Amino acid sequence: MTRPTPLQLEPLTGLLAGVRQVLSPHFDARPQGVAPELIVVHGISLPAGEFGGPWIDHLFAGDLPADAHPSFRDTATLRVSAHVLVSRDGNITQYVPFGMRAWHAGQSQYQGRTGCNDFSIGIELEGTDQIPYTDAQYESLAALIRVLISAYPTLCAERITGHSDIAPGRKTDPGPAFDWGRCRRAAASQRPERLG
Ligand SMILES: [Zn+2]
Fold it and tell me: pLDDT 10s per residue in the chain (196 long)?
C-alpha cells in the first residue's frame, strides 16, 4: 500500500491545501477566544442510502433543489454545513474553514457543555448508520485527525465523538456501522508532530 501524501492545513485560512473546496454560506465566527476542542464524526447520505450524488454539496451550499427528490422538500430548507465531507472513495471536500463555526451539531452537549458547534470541528462521512464505511474513508479520516491535531493544540486524540453522542435521542449518526475502535486506534497512533 502506498503511503498517502499528508494533508496540509494552512493555519491563516483554516483551509486544507490541495483539497476540493465548496465553500458554504452556512457558517459564522466562533465565540471570542474559543478554539476547536472537539472533533465530531457524522454520517450523511442524500437521498438517504444513496451515495455519489452531488446533493450533499448542494445542501451545504444552500442550493439543494427541493424538487429533485421527494425527501428534499424539508431538507432543502435547512441551513446546515460541516467543515469537511469524506466521500465513499475517500475524497475530501471542505465547506467551512476550520477556524470558523460550521453548523453541523445542532442542539448538543459534550461533557456538560452545550452548543457544540462553538468549539468543534464537524467531519461528515458519506454513509448510513448500517452500511460499513469504506477503508478509504477511514484512511482519510485518520489523515484529517492527524492534520487537525497538529494544527490545533486544543484538539487531541481523546476528544473525538459522534453526533449521536452529543445529541442522543435526536441523532443516530454515524451509527453502529462506524468502527470506533478503528478510528481511535488510528487517532492514538498519530501523535502530533509538535515539540514540547
Ligand atoms: Zn450528524
Answer: 455 568 999 989 999 999 999 999 999 999 999 999 999 999 999 999 999 999 999 999 999 999 999 999 999 999 999 999 999 999 999 999 999 999 999 999 999 999 999 999 999 999 999 999 999 999 999 999 999 999 999 999 999 999 999 999 999 999 999 999 999 998 887 655 554 4
Domain assignment present for 65: no
The CA 174 to ligand 1 mean position distance, Å, reads 7
Q: Report CA(79)–ligand 1 centroid distance (Å).
A: 13
| Domains of the chain: total | 1
Return the residue matching grid coordinates 479520516.
Answer: 141
Q: Ligand 1 centroid to 100 CA: how many Å?
A: 18
Cα separation, 79 vs 63, whole angstroms: 10
Q: Is the pTM of this model over 0.90?
A: yes
CATH of the domain at 99: 3.40.80.10
The residues that are catalytic are 124
Residue 60 lies in a domain: no
Q: Which of 28, 38, 31 is nearest to 81 (CA)?
A: 28
